[in-house]
Design a protein that fits this description.
This protein is mainly alpha-helical. The chain contains 11 helices and 9 strands.
């Protein structure tokens, strides 16, 4: 049996270059992968929207039925189809990757990126860009494969980053179940609230499980099994890649391992040193927000904003900070918190 490589429009090839290029550049430049992936998704969506406006949908593509591509201008597109799991169409398996960057409408991408922003930043700060990217991509593939295996006879084209995002949620809940994050949670409608990650994962998983069985056998445009496959894949990947979490003691250089489900010891900050940098009411208000904030990633954002507003008490030049150390590159001023 001959293997068939389905045709792609040149715009789809450009989209693939954007996907791969953004990840490579972001990793080399040490950009936060959450932001890199969101920007890449938005660029691809803008390209998709532009083509659809002119009555073309080469990026999403047509549907493969009985060996023929129906719609999509005769091009396969970058979405994944269960038929690609067959030996005949195996060369098109790369769409397991590309389908994660394709979205079918504004609400589709807006919902995905909205949830991903709140959850991704917090999780990436804890495990680093490399592990984060691996979990995101492989969990997304796991989600698409789960949906395809459950529904092998379907002609549905699978698109969207939902499986990958659910994978991040599953990994986050496995590694940092007690951590609180600010994120949208589906309780009837989406509420933005502070919640422990494990509770958020349970809520999302329960909602998806109920929806999956309620709509099973009913025509539904949402790939619910992809979501469940993604969240399970995320948990497994987190256990393999990260396992016991490790932090480094900056004073001794030794690694410290701790239990995911154990109570986290609070980090003690030396606010007196930070207070010395606040020279006006606006800066004092910002520092008060830092002191009162309980969500780590939100507190870090307020701290970043506070230090951006301060200047060196010796020479008046901008300050820099990393690993709880603050210094001025124009003089010998140093402090910490």
């Amino acid at each position: 049996m001959d293997m068939i490589f389905l045709p792609q429009h040149w715009v789809s090839l450009l989209a693939i270059a954007i996907m791969v290029g953004s990840i490579i550049i972001g990793y080399i430049k040490k950009w936060m992968m959450t932001y890199t992936l969101i920007i890449a998704n938005l660029i691809i969506f803008a390209l998709t929207f532009y083509l659809q406006y002119f009555s073309q949908n080469e990026i999403i593509g047509g549907i493969l039925i009985n060996g023929k591509i129906i719609g999509g201008g005769g091009f396969a597109g970058l979405g994944f189809q269960p038929a690609y799991l067959s030996v005949e169409y195996l060369p098109n398996i790369y769409t397991l990757f590309t389908s994660m960057f394709i979205h079918g409408g504004f609400l589709h991408i807006a919902g995905n990126m909205f949830v991903f922003f709140f959850m991704g930043v917090a999780f990436e700060q804890r495990i680093g860009a490399k592990n984060f990217l691996i979990i995101y991509l492989i969990a997304g593939i796991c989600g698409a494969l789960t949906q395809s295996i459950i529904d092998l006879g379907s002609y549905t084209t699978l698109i969207g980053a939902s499986g990958a995002i659910f994978g991040i949620l599953g990994a986050f809940a496995y590694l940092y179940p007690r951590d609180e994050v600010v994120m949208p949670v589906p309780i009837g409608i989406m509420f933005i609230m502070r919640i422990k990650v494990i509770y958020a994962a349970i809520i999302f998983a329960v909602v998806e499980t109920i929806t999956t069985f309620v709509t099973f056998g009913v025509k539904d445009t949402t790939a619910h099994f992809a979501h469940l496959g993604g969240i399970i894949g995320g948990v497994v990947l987190a256990a393999i890649l990260v396992g016991k979490k490790r932090t480094e003691n900056l004073e001794t250089g030794k690694s410290i391992y701790y239990d995911s489900f154990a109570e986290r010891k609070p980090i003690i900050w030396n606010f007196s040193n930070l207070r010395n940098l606040a020279t006006n009411n606006n800066q004092e208000e910002l520092l008060t927000r830092v002191e009162k904030e309980t969500v780590p990633q939100v507190r870090d954002l307020w701290l970043e904003h506070f230090i951006d507003k301060t200047t060196c008490p010796k020479c008046g030049k901008p300050l820099h900070h990393l690993n709880r150390n603050i210094w001025c590159e124009s003089c010998d001023y140093k402090t910490n918190y």
